[in-house]
Description:
Oligomer: single chain
Shape: globular
Largest sheet: 5 strands, mixed, barrel
Low-confidence stretches: 725-781
Strand content: 15-25%
Number of strands: 35
Radius of gyration: 28 Å
Amino acid sequence: MKRKNDRGFPDRSAIVAFIKANPGKVGTREIAREFGLKNADRVELKRMLRELADDGIIKKKRHKVSEPDTLPPTLLADITGRDSDGELIASPAEWDEVENGEPPKILIEMPRRPKPGTAAGVGDRALLRVERSDEEEGPAYRGRIIKVIDKAKSRILGVFRELPEGGGRLVPVDKKFADRELNIARADTQGAQDGDLVSVDIVRSRGFGLASGRVKEKLGSVKSEKAISLIAIYAHEIPLQFSPAAEREAEAAEPANLRGREDWRDVPLVTIDPPDAKDHDDAVHAQADDDPNNKGGFIVNVAIADVSFYVRPGTALDRDALDRGNSVYFPDRVVPMLPERISNNLCSLVPGEPRGALAVRMVIGPDGRKRSHTFHRILMRSAAKLNYAQAQAAIDGRPDDTTGPLLDPILRPLYAAYSSVKRARDERDPLNLDLPERKILLKSDGTVDRVVVPERLDAHKLIEEFMILANVAAAETLEKRSLPLIYRVHDEPTLEKVHALAEFLETLDVPFAKAGALRPTLFNRVLAQLEGHDYYPLVSEVVLRAQAQAEYSSENYGHFGLNLRRYAHFTSPIRRYADLVVHRALVRALGLGEGALPDSETPETLSEVAAHISLTERRAMKAERETVDRLIAHHLADRIGASFQGRVSGVTRAGLFVKLADTGADGLIPIRSLGTEYFNYDESRHALVGTRSGTMYQLGDVVDVRLIEAAPIAGALRFELLSSASETSPRERRPFRPQRKSSKPHPGRSPERKHKPAKQKSGKVKKGKGKNKGKGQKGKAW
């Protein structure tokens, strides 16, 4: 009997009992279905769930609720030791002890014959499927290893430093091992010279003093910037070489032909990419719709390279692609997800060459909204390869020899369709945090030339909006056909982060309406009021840090940043495994021929794939960020003592992190160097405040600094403060005045870009952590 109160709602105890009976699987939708609640009852149900969460009776994460100490069915865990019977014990890799207390223990159940990739030991990190244990004693959970993600470190990457008496020392590049130098005997140097980047096998030492190591591989001299990206590649164990079997499959692949395909070779599709793009996996075309029922509307075609035709499930190419998860982009190189014959040849939509593609034909109404769409497996021939600036210049009245003939028949219809789509986009009002990323330009010898911020053009936005439409169409089609897929999801900010943002804005006298449903419009309204105000950069940073991190999931909980109910990555299968899965699912759903998603792929198996590629995405972003930090530190190493202007990008108990205006480099001003008085860390204001003078250094402040130290291998910079902060007390800071506007809008940031986390020596800072940039749709992080 489902207990209900006088108003027809289930009792709190009935809801809690249902949640306990279905660990890790319950959300608002499931509860409403179980108790027969209608749409009109959802508001009351959500209120009741918030009360239960506030009372600590349940725990709410994303759109799922559970018992407070319930672990999700799939998680990343570190194997920490063994029990008295020798069985492996693990703990969740990501666990907030301040909020949740001691992490629960998980007993690893190992089969007699482990599958490849599941043999693990102490110190390894693994993806687990977990469930509650039925045993009265021992760990509360038992788990099964899905895949070992990271083996215990038995090899360290570092810089070899030669000793006068022979042999040398290894200085690790990983900051976690910075105090663990290794002694390398003369016989174990393998000819390494001072300053060489080497990988070293650890040899356990039985006595006192340094452990010893043996050089396994020489990777080049760190005096060359060309070795800098290798540090990140090896440190994060990013696969650099393809398996011989995958290379053989790539070389044996035959170009696509018309068999089983529609002939679109006469459709003048064009690619629009960055000028240095090596592969071209998407092409676009638009024309006015001649249907009298859609007067003022458009037909938009988006064609994507048909990677699923070449990379079949279960092949060596597929295994290598899944292992990598995505391509990784460094200033001096790309580590691709697929071999060059696939990515730069057979699947690159080069002009004049027939290429297989999966295309979506979208009917756009005069209001800019997508009315309908259909998917097609085609053979196409690109009419032209353009870059963003080239296409924009043509529209702005400066066509060249390539764009001149394309202006009226191709480019103007594309821009007209974009203008219509943009109106619908503005009505949808996605999160308006959109800042172009800095780009490092290298000289021919691999050294840093300069750092630029590419101009954001309508050409960029055109491609982005068309790609978003195509991604939505893919998700809608697969949902309608009830096919499993991998969604691109972005959760709404947690209540804790929203409350923290509201408290911060209150210190600036900035109004923030917390009532009602949480929507991107709420944040956009705040940012729009602040355009042109001194507080705009500061508030933009804090709004960015309040956002959740996007990820891949076989379960859909929407994309908050884009304000979309369903969204899946479809448009970059050359460089993202998630897109390849979506292509295969479409081929299967629509009966389009070879390369379909196998019947064995279920939401459960795809949840494992989604968890893995979310990890590889974060791995790639961290490696890219660290490489940029090291390159810029190397670039600035000969400018010790120089002065720069920057902005405070992080505030911690350890000091201030400053991002330089010209290069985007991050460095630390230690708190001990700020002055003779004691500074308190004010978490709500994201500030350090002097106890005696009231001097305040706050997130977003513009400061002048002097470079004191540069550590290229660590990618670290240390500054000292030259300019003084406002010496008014926090209460006396100038209040917000919404009437101040600027004729020049301020850019914002994408919700998926990650800001370099502020590091500290002690204590935990829950608010003020941030995330920085990543790669996504055409360089964005969608």
